[in-house]
Amino acid sequence: MLLKTSLRSFFAHKGRMALSLIAVVLSVAFVSGTLVFSNTATSTFDKLFAATASDVSVQPPKPDDDEEQQAAAKPPTVPVALAQQIAGLPGVKTAVGQVMVHNAILVDPATNKLVGPTQGAPTLLGNWTDTPRNALHITSGHAPQGPGELVLDADTAKKAKLGLGDHVRVDNSGGKHDFTIAGIATFTTTNPGAALAFLDTDTAQRVLLGEQAYTSVEAFGDGSRGNDQLKADAVAKVGAGYQVKTAAEQKDENTKQVGSGLDFMKYAMLGFAFVSAIVGAFLIVNTFSMLVAQRTREIGLLRAIGGSRRQVNRSVLVEALILGVLGSTIGVGAGLGVAVGLIKLMNAIGMDLNAADLQIGPDVFVAGYSLGIVVTLVAAFFPARRASRISPMAALRDHGTPAEGRANVIRTVVGLLLTAGGAALLVLGAGADKAATGGQYLGLGVVLTLVGFVVIGPLLASALIRVLGAVLPALFGPSGKLAQRNAMRNPRRTGATAAALMIGLALVIASSVFSSSAVTSASAQIDRSVGVDFIIQGGRTEVTPEMQDIVRRTPGIDHVTTQKFFTAKLQLPDGGKAKNDLTAVPPTFFGSDFHPSLDAGSVDSIERGSLGIGAAFAKDHNLKVGDQVGVDYGKGRTQTLPVGAVFKKGELFGDGSFVAMDTMAKVVPAAEQPPVWTFFAKASAGTDVAKTLTALEDGLKQFPQLSIKDQAGYKEMVQSQIDTLLYLIYGLVALSITVAVLGVVNTLALSVVERTREIGLLRAIGLSRRQLRRMIRLESVVIALFGAVLGTGLGLAWGVTAQRVLRDQGLGTLSVPAGTIGVTLAASVVIGLFAALIPAFRAGRMNVLAAIATD
């Protein structure tokens, strides 16, 4: 009987449930689509790694922590003889020496453009080998047979419009090497997005390694021994110094590396999907609250004929359950479309995934149905509770829900306490000395202020809408006055509707404040501390002496400054040890090119043989100017240096440590020094910087991997990187704002139905259709503006606090984007007008007499 009543009620109001259903569908679709995409990508790479991994791989010794930083141009290798040793082990069918490096690039000499991806996936070069599990097979041409031939993967060849007989150049630290494409190879499973090129083994060793060696030895068994036994035999043969990994271990390691790249996108999308689900919950609350109000007499009759409170409560919750199950089912199906869209997006940027091989695991259904059903039931609980408290006589007589004056007082007190507590945490976060502590306060403060604003929404609605709508009667006459009063009529409903929009806009404003502060801070630091005119970055390859010489010889260039990065282990005066990034620089670095701010000491002391350290490092380890610190560069290369300068926190070099190039060179031979990845150039006095930049670009055009920027261009690059992240956030937040707009539409639509008789009476006493539609539109605009004002306030509080938390991490300048705030408020007006289109149209088409006769 309960289910029958709930089903009849649900389908009797299916039109009023439609927008709530859409909200559930969108949230579930985003979650299920993200999971399907993640599962498909993971499965694709799992198949690739499982199909191509050798049974046992013998790799160079794992570098010590002290040596990880060297980032040497030459990759670690194993001797050629190791392949013969592994091949002679029992149970090994074949052992192949492999060369594979990622520190070289491919260039099309005809266009002087890079061949292969410029970001994301790497460009890999190695030797062509025939193994039982090759990732690629040659589909046209032949394997490289001499020092001038190269095999290119089919996907890269297609994108670069290259074919058999075309020329390709390989650039690395050893110089430029010309090759002819002799073969095109196609992946046997999937292309992870990388560009792959293969040379014959002798050429690969000479060009890519500079010696007769391999980067690994790959062994394949004959089936007589398990991989674990093969690994044990290999370790016993070659010793424990080498890394020996089974196929399963190789697969796990590769999967972990790929998964770390996909996890950011996965969790970001899931996070915003849950935000949209929360926003959708407000829509569902409003839907069921209004449906309960409209069915007050019906509920009273049910109670009068013997229905219990529990039955009424369950009846409403069963309707919510139906909505949740239906929305989740459609959402899971729609999620497949979302997954296909994400796969096509990945394919567009070079990752080859097959949309026909979607992996739909149990987690997709569990997450989708759990989200849809739980959110719907939780959102419907409070309306259901209010419905169950309607007494039969009050419902039949007054057509109203029971008064909840005490509940409103409690709600107001709780909301004020939560908001005040959240605000206090934000203040504590803004004043915290450590970013980690401030971040914790910020996170908790965001949650409490958000919940507090939601709880206190009705109180804020009564006050703010009175202010926001104050000009409406003067500007729009009766329509404006009615719109203001309608928006204030049910503060709880208005607060819930506006809260949905508030959340999305708060995220937009907070992100805008953060990004604007980051760009402004970076620009200010560059203006304040950077004296060089040009920044040249090597990208994925190191900077060669040839590149530096070209820059030095360019007319208008005064000098060139390089830098070399280490990760050194420092021996502290108190006996402790600490790892720290260390940069070795020449005299011109601090002499004329960069002007750091200091807390103590002198920057000139660095050139005289002292150590420069960041303020945070100095504070964490109780270091001061004059303290003696032992510096271990790795491989036993050590020296003791006094602290000569402490850089100010939050400045360009606030977290860095520096040593003079000459000081470092006293203990680290040139052959062991890391390569240069970035260098700088200073223009001569009176030189036209723009013309010199053009001359640099012309001189270095043979090196397409280089990024050449003047200060203005570097600022633009920093801003574009931040903007890319910001636009991603905006795109994800758009989902929650879409759901919020649906909430405004739903509230107005149900409100029109609820006020059918009232609308009929207004029309009967002379309100025109135009005035009626205007009243609905203005009511919608006021509600949207109310949500925008709350969202702006929250977003500003969150964004400003985030900037203060990170003030010592480079965000030293607060920048409030007034333009974004203005656009947000203007957009809220547009949102309000858009949301009112259908409800206003329906209200205007009502028959006056039929509306008045409505019960």
What does the model show?
It is a single chain. It contains 29 helices and 26 strands. By secondary structure, it is an alpha+beta fold. The strands form 5 sheets. Strands 4, 5, 6, 7, 8, 9, 10, 11 and 12 form a 9-stranded mixed beta sheet that branches. Strands 18, 19, 20, 21, 22, 23 and 24 form a 7-stranded mixed beta sheet that branches. A 4-stranded antiparallel beta sheet has the order 3-14-1-15.
Can you lay out the helices and strands and say which pair or pack?
Layout: H1 2-12, H2 14-52, E1 56-59, E2 78-79, H3 81-87, E3 92-98, E4 100-101, E5 105-108, E6 113-115, E7 123-127, E8 136-141, E9 149-153, H4 154-160, E10 167-172, E11 175-187, E12 195-199, H5 201-209, E13 213-214, E14 216-221, H6 227-238, E15 243-246, H7 247-294, H8 296-304, H9 309-348, H10 362-388, H11 392-398, H12 405-431, H13 435-455, H14 457-468, H15 472-476, H16 478-489, H17 491-529, E16 534-537, H18 545-553, E17 557-562, E18 564-571, E19 577-585, H19 587-593, E20 598-601, H20 604-607, E21 611-614, H21 615-620, E22 628-632, E23 638-647, E24 657-660, H22 661-665, E25 678-683, H23 689-699, E26 707-710, H24 711-754, H25 756-764, H26 769-805, H27 818-835, H28 837-844, H29 848-853
Parallel strand pairs: 7-12, 9-11, 19-24, 21-23
Antiparallel strand pairs: 1-14, 1-15, 2-13, 3-14, 4-7, 5-6, 5-10, 8-11, 9-12, 10-11, 16-25, 16-26, 17-25, 18-19, 18-22, 20-23, 22-23
GO cellular component, one term: plasma membrane
Family: Belongs to the ABC-4 integral membrane protein family.
Domain ABC3 transporter permease C-terminal: 272-392, 732-847
